[in-house]
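User: My instructor asked us to take a sequence, write out its structure as tokens, and then describe one feature of it. I'm not sure where to start. Here is the sequence I was given:
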Amino acid sequence: MWFDETNANSKKYALWVVGMEGRALKDASPELQNDKDVVLAAVDRNESAIQFASPELQNDRDVVFKAIDKTWTALQYIKPELRDDKDIMLRAIEKEGAALQFASDRLKNDKDVVLKAVGENGYALEYASPRLRNDKDVALKAVSNLWAALKYASPEMQNDRDVVLKAIKKCGSALEFASPELKNDKDIVLEAIKNDGWAIEFASPELKNDVDVIIAMGLYFKDYYIHDDIGDDDIGDYLGDDDPGDIGD
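Assistant: Let's start with the prediction itself. The structure tokens for your sequence are:
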């Protein structure tokens, strides 16, 4: 216990204690837990201390902003109704797009908020509403930031040529998250392999045996062949059951 009867209501002592350990606010008197100076000092030391503030100060915007400015993960400690506050959520999302996971359902369905989140961290698309995971503007913004965000796009967006091309131009392995239809689209697969030869792993069985696709893969790996860093057995693993020697038969 950080407080006893000799210092239970001492603001000077409380400021000193929470300056060393913010969570000591838990043991402070109700009067000190309702003292804004003490709470701000506690939160400045440890953002999780906000959960021990008085109900009034847990709703105080200065206190909330102090906590999320310390770290966006402080959102897990603030009241649900504050996670429905657009200004608060945008403040956190500016620091880390993944803060969207703590937003209210209403804000997860707010296009402005979600665009801001996926623009900061494409993976935030995982936390967007189903409607916005199916929004082309949002999907393009997400994969522009991080190609692997294609994983969290809706099936419709995973089947959208513009979205998939944007992702595979950043990294060919994004082909893994494309629709079966686009994995069987020769132009899409060739673009993916141009950027990452290993992307052939995710092409359809038909295109793994396509001459143009195999040539494109060979061009990508030519430097590896020259240095003997990769061999036919390695490539064969990515082609599946097809024998590289039988390509085009």
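For the description part of your assignment, you could build on this observation: The chain is about 55% helix and 0% strand. Try explaining in your own words what that tells you about the chain.
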